[in-house]
Write a structure and sequence with these properties.
It is a single chain. With 203 residues, the chain is an all-alpha fold. It has a domain at 65-85 and 93-203: dinb family like domain (Four Helix Bundle (Hemerythrin (Met), subunit A), Up-down Bundle), CATH 1.20.120. 46% of the residues lie in helices and 3% in strands. The chain has helices at 2-8, 66-75, 77-81, 97-120, 131-137, 145-164, 183-202; strands at 172-174, 180-182. A hairpin with a 5-residue loop joins strand 1 (172-174) and strand 2. Helix 2 (66-75) packs parallel to helix 7 (183-202). Residues 82-199 form the DinB-like domain.
Length: 203
């Protein structure tokens, strides 16, 4: 699965907040999976100060805590995917709960790949990923919520185990926009994404 994801990564603008379709029941609320206005903000500041939207504070935990934190986050998504409004967008600029969950699944896979690069190569340059283009191309809002729940859980378990095997948290990696990480800062930056998106679907 990681090899498949890596093959789909392309060099394009970094847009990071960094499967088969299923028939849709006629009574299921759904919003077409048209593209939203891309979020082009650089969220790396969450490593240094709390997020005022979701309350995330990187100063309150260590990098070694991230493995357990992501498993706890993953466990909260299946109930979200059972909601009747799972395909409904609450507004013109906000994804549906299903789209957020599919995005989080792919974030888990993407960061697993990047973590492997950092452990294998010297200061690797991450392949870029356009999250908004992926959401449309992969038709996130028509995917099966049960499948997404299973895949998200599996991806979280794999990434958690990979973080648990890290022995050198100082190994570096970088994005094409010039942002430089160590595995330590990378882990703290990463975990904000699924935490923030769980907050997005809980409002």
């Amino acid at each position: 699965m990681l090899a498949s994801l890596a093959a789909n990564l392309r060099h394009a603008p970094v847009l990071e907040r960094d499967h088969g379709s299923m028939p849709i029941p006629p009574d299921m609320p759904i919003t077409p999976d048209a593209p939203l206005t891309p979020d082009t903000k650089n969220w790396t500041w969450v490593i240094e100060k709390p997020c005022p939207e979701c309350g995330f504070d990187a100063a309150t935990f260590g990098a070694k805590d991230v493995a357990a934190m992501l498993l706890a986050n993953a466990a909260a998504w299946p109930p979200v995917l059972n909601r009747a409004d799972v395909r409904s967008r609450p507004g013109e600029s906000t994804w549906s709960p299903l789209e957020y969950a599919a995005h989080v699944r792919d974030v888990f896979r993407l960061y697993h790949h990047r973590l492997e690069l950092m452990q294998r190569d010297d200061n690797p340059l991450y392949p870029n990923w356009d999250q908004d283009e992926t959401a449309v191309a992969e038709r996130y809002n028509t995917q099966d919520p049960a499948v997404i729940a299973a895949e998200l859980t599996e991806a979280a378990a794999s990434l958690s185990a990979a973080f648990g095997r890290v022995t050198d948290w100082s190994r570096p990696g970088r994005r094409s926009d010039g942002v430089q990480f160590t595995i330590e800062s990378f882990s703290k930056y990463f975990i904000h994404d699924p935490i923030h998106h769980l907050h997005d679907v809980s409002r």
